[in-house]
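Margin note from the TA: students keep mixing up input and output lines. Inputs are the sequences; the output is the structure of the whole complex. Example:
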Amino acid sequence: MSTTRRVVIEPLTRVEGHGKVTIRLDSAGEVESARLHVVEFRGFERFIQGRPYWEMPVAVQRLCGICPVSHHLAAAKAMDGIVGVDELTPTAEKVRRLMHYGQIFQSHALHFFHLSSPDLLFGFDSDPATRNVIGVAGAFPELARQGILMRKYGQEVIQATAGKKVHGTGAIPGGVNRSLTSAERVELAADIPRQKRWAAEAVAIARDYTLENLAFATEFAAFPSNHLGLVRPDGTFDLYDGVLRAVDESGEKILNDVEAGRYADVLVEEVRPWSYMKFPFLRELGPHKGWYRVGPLARLAVCERIATPEAEAARVQFDEAMGGRPGTMSLAYHWARMIETLSAIEEIEQLLDDPDIEGDDLVRKGERRPESVGVIEAPRGTLFHHYVVADDDTVMRANLIVSTTSNNEPMNRAVESVAKKFLTGTEITEGLLNHVEVAIRAYDPCLSCATHALGKMPLVIEIQDAGGRTLAEGKRNS
Amino acid sequence: MSESFTFYIDGVPVEAAPGMTILDAAQAAGIWIPRLCWHEELEPFGGCRVCTVKMNGRSCAACTQPAEPESVVENDSVALREWRKALVELLFAEGNHFCMACEKSGSCELQALAYRLGIAAPRFEHRWQAREVDASHADVLIDRNRCILCARCVRASRDLDGKNVFGFTGRGPERRVAVNSDARLRDTDLDVSDRAVDICPVGAIIRKGVGFTVPIGARRYDGAPIGSDVESANDELESANEHTEGGAAATVRQEE
């Protein structure tokens, strides 16, 4: 009779989507392995087949309610190619960028203030009754309020550009269907100073947290990896458009600024039987060495500079703290994420100051093409949309690689590293299991998108023996 | 030549000429009777029954029933609103109406009617029928998922375009809009400028490539609920209707 045990964390909490973690313990109580399973499936790639191409930006954004704008814009960028438009009008490009930065701003604020701050402010193993956004509102009311108002501001930027705060229609093949009115521009610009100040303060909170806990952070879910993201051809940070760049753990370029449309030449997706979420890797390096991180930490690793001044100053500080190399600490994602938030609000400020944002030259047309790829940096990382469109204008095939999918291997490594370090040979408590969730949360995964599944992400914990018999189980809802 | 006469809709005296339908007379008097298959350019069809009223206590389709002198018509009553609501809900249950990804959203008569009637959630089980998309024509697409069998395209092609491009095939739940060829729209003489193309009340017949070019806020029913154009023709009646479903529909719309 074996005494091997399996611990299952299901449903995971304070992340977007539904998933579970299983941790296998041997007879000595040592962690053998740990895995993040994504257990829901949605299948957008299949059911958009046969639909007209111009529906895609509006249809596929329904993958998600958290960052639908990312899917909206990635699909719209792909459809630009389908209608033969390689360069948008200045107004269209700027309206889309404004929409995207509003999206980055609101999504990052939501993650930092609502989902992650309870762990950082109260401690990973603090009382779960207050380790949530309500607890934050009680103990740090001003911080909670800022989080809510920053999210609101981002949503208002989205509404002004897409027509609705969630699931709008702003981006269309070849351009946009609206630009800003003077009134919208003035109203949004009026709140910029306050939003910028809050974003800078959030950078400071995340920075101070990381620096004060540096010894812990270098032990907690920290491991070297490759990193992948879009940059401008000159290496400048860009969330809306660019070329694909990947660097290894020392910062050497291993993917040398590949045109985004060629993603399939350089990336491969592997399927493993125990999760609906695929495992992408760099073709040249293979599945064992070719996996990579995406998202804020990776974007700061691949870029050489940020175009806006305050975010660039913050990036330089970040880079110094990382020792001038790509980040290894999962917890540093929070700091990187807030630097991006600051960059987004600076970009919003510049766009609102640009008369083109009220322009009326909205759409271009070109020669229809059969196939196109749209790539964008979503809040959670690089997002690929690839479509093949038949002569009758209906979609024949689609392939989506969403950000969280690319972070699948890193999140699994983070889970295993934390489980081995913190759960071995001890009595397993809720606080210790939350360490596992904290590691996952750092990546801000959206498991709905990753499997194109629906719902919130609750967490279940289950302990089983080697025969799969459940010894203990703990569940909670998000 | 007969004289015009008076009849009553919800107690309001309405003038009508002999032969006028209840719906036409109501329309002229600024009274809105909900409808889907009716269109001012087409002969009445009496297909959707959403315009059901009671004349002298007996239910009939207002679009086909001629008004009669001194008759008493019940239109905006709780019972009739419930009937119409059920009829519209059944249309949603029968087809595959995914408003969230439909380019007609905001300009769709079926959706606008659902808002105005206060339909918030499905009551009937959806049939989830497999229905075909015909994308063969260079400029026009048929999405039968969204078809409500109102026959506007059938009538417009026959009576306005003189072409007979559209017709029906099948019976009962299998009924579908068909085209005048073996299978494909591209083999008919339909032209994108035909009246039959734009007269569809839903997103079943659409011009290709238009998609979501009209921004949210500028769509047909973004400003005012369906029927308010008819009602605004009569200020007195409009103020009388203020406390009915119209206001509620506007509220629902904003939350969509």
